[in-house]
Recover the amino acids of this structure.
């Protein structure tokens, strides 16, 4: 391989079996990344751009690529490869995609002139809400800071009594025309004006209030109605024009209100349904009866059936959260947890023993079923147990 030369496939970042389309795509990406127009006065970028074009000149030509694949840089025909600078583009689209609107004015493909009207950025405010405020709705007042057009210079950035001057380099267009070499000779391309930064104006004396930016920081206070049913992390309100101000006469951005709902000490929420745990006594679980269940409005009475088991979940309709901008409500689901007393006196223990003796296991269906399964398992594996564990006994 010739000294100081990298493999052409390595230069474009493709495999040796890459298709023509893959090579073209890789070339366009590589050429854009080191285009001299995007890196003015950068000698490394210019050298890289020439290297990319040299590699594409060879790999985009089937005959040259075949010779390069067979002989590398040492072509026995004597013609060799490389050294021709900006030559050998596959077609006009290849160079047009790199140079953008190289043969005319404007900002190029997909470009945007700096002095054109630009919409201001959107802002986001995270509004803190309690669980109840989100569920029932409320009125909230909050303050935030954003930029506003400077009232001293009215957004020009120039000192009061003065005006920005038209940039002498770009004549107010915000762009410069530059010339560079191409396979077709010298080609003109447009880039952001280096003198005014693309604004088209030059400020000689800056506004003392905003420092020439044309904007000052202000505090805004907003009062809004939070609708019932708002959930955590929801963008429930957009206020047009309360974002950052636009530039060059562009419109202001919007303010997005995002709800941050604090957790509740009792309830968990899933969309419009509520979930909670309710402890009950052993007697309540066994005998059934009326228990008190918490709701967002306070409490409600609910009758549980006799023999209610630990972990049973019961549903109460229309006791959840109101649907956002709707009329319906979700449901309340509560799960019962049987609490077993820890500290019993002798009389209480005796009473429980008497109860246990009177039941004689007949009312414990799960326990009986589990015991039957254990006995069946032991019976089925009796011989294996005896063979493995009975030796030596």
């Amino acid at each position: 391989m010739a000294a100081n030369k990298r493999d052409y496939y390595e230069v474009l970042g493709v495999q040796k079996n890459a298709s023509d389309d893959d090579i073209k795509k890789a070339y366009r990406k590589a050429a854009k990344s080191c285009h001299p127009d995007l890196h003015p006065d950068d000698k490394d970028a210019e050298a890289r751009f020439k290297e990319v074009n040299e590699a594409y000149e060879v790999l985009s030509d089937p005959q040259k690529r075949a010779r390069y694949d067979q002989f590398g840089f040492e072509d026995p025909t004597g013609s060799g490869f490389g050294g021709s600078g900006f030559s050998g583009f596959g077609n006009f689209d290849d160079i047009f995609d790199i140079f953008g609107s190289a043969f005319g004015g404007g900002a190029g493909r997909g470009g945007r002139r700096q002095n054109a009207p630009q919409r201001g950025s959107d802002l986001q405010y995270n509004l803190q809400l309690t669980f109840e405020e989100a569920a029932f709705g409320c009125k909230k007042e909050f303050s935030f800071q954003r930029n506003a057009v400077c009232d001293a210079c009215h957004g020009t950035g120039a000192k009061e009594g003065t005006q920005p001057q038209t940039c002498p380099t770009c004549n107010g267009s915000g762009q410069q025309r530059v010339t560079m070499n191409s396979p077709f000779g010298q080609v003109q391309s447009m880039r952001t004006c280096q003198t005014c930064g693309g604004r088209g104006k030059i400020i000689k004396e800056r506004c003392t209030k905003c420092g020439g930016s044309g904007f000052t920081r202000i505090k805004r206070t907003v009062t809004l109605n939070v609708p019932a049913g708002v959930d955590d992390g929801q963008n429930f309100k957009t206020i047009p024009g309360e974002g950052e101000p636009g530039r060059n006469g562009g419109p202001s951005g919007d303010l997005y209100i995002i709800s941050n709902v604090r957790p509740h000490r009792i309830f968990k929420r899933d969309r419009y349904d509520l979930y909670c745990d309710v402890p009950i006594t052993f007697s309540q679980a066994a005998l059934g009866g009326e228990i008190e269940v918490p709701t967002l409005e306070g409490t409600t009475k609910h009758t549980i059936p006799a023999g209610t088991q630990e972990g049973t979940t019961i549903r109460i309709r229309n006791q959840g959260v109101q649907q956002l901008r709707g009329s319906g409500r979700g449901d309340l689901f509560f799960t019962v947890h049987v609490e077993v007393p820890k500290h019993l006196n002798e009389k209480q223990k005796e009473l429980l023993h008497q109860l246990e003796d009177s039941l004689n296991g007949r009312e414990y269906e799960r326990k009986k079923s589990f015991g039957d399964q254990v006995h069946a398992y032991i019976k089925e594996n009796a011989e294996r147990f005896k063979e493995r564990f009975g030796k030596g006994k």
In short: Residues 43-59 form the longest helix (17 residues). Confidence is low (pLDDT under 50) at residues 83-111. Residues 356-389 form one domain. Residues 75 and 233 are 65 Å apart (CA to CA).
